[in-house]
Amino acid sequence: MELKEAKQRFFNQLGQWKIMALGSSVNDYVMVRNVSCLFYNEKIYFKTDKNFRKTQQLFQNPRVALCCGGVQVEGIALNKGLVIDEPGRTFETLYKQYLWGSYNAYSHEEDEILIEVTPKFVEIWDTDEDNYAFQIFIDFDQKTAEVVSYDKK
Questions:
Q1: Residue 82 exposed, middle or buried by CB count within 10 Å (0-12, 13-18, 19+)
Q2: CB 33 within 8 A of CB 22
């Protein structure tokens, strides 16, 4: 599989938004929690309160993992500043569109920051038309994609 096709499959499988499990770690203390993610510009975005424990962890160690529905992502998180300061306000627009309830309940402009995750390595579990499992490995740094059969007879 070509890299371009693998990346397209990855982002198509995620769609416009997903609730994903976010894993982070500092000094061997690991945390996992759900975050509401949006996908654009070949990146993963979520907002968080700048005072939360997860945010403080991300400031100390930007290496993260995200997981949802057979898609596993390893990446680097970057604080992009206040949600309302994003040029073009793409996140805010999409968040209102897809996650209105959360936007309305939890958007506090003075504390909400935008986190951008750049995927570094992705593993996708899927099945073919005969229901045989396979994996797709995408290495964004090496610019490679590999399909590996898991249980094909």
A1: middle
A2: yes
Q: Which of the four pLDDT bands, split at 50, 70 and 90, describes residue 23?
A: very high
- Mean of the per-residue pLDDT values of the chain: 92
- pLDDT digits 0-9 by tens, 68-99: 999 999 999 999 999 889 999 999 999 999 98
CA 18/CA 65 separation, integer angstroms: 14
Identify which of 69, 59, 112 has the alpha carbon closest to the alpha carbon of residue 89.
Answer: 112
Quote the DSSP letter at residue 83: G
Sign of CA dihedral 60, 62, 65, 66: positive
Helix, strand, coil percentages (3-state) for the chain, rounded to 5, are: 25, 50, 25
Q: What is the pTM of this model?
A: 0.92
Helix (DSSP H) and strand (DSSP E) numbers for the chain: 4, 8
User: How far apart, in whole angstroms, are the C-alpha atoms of residue 44 and residue 2?
Assistant: 21
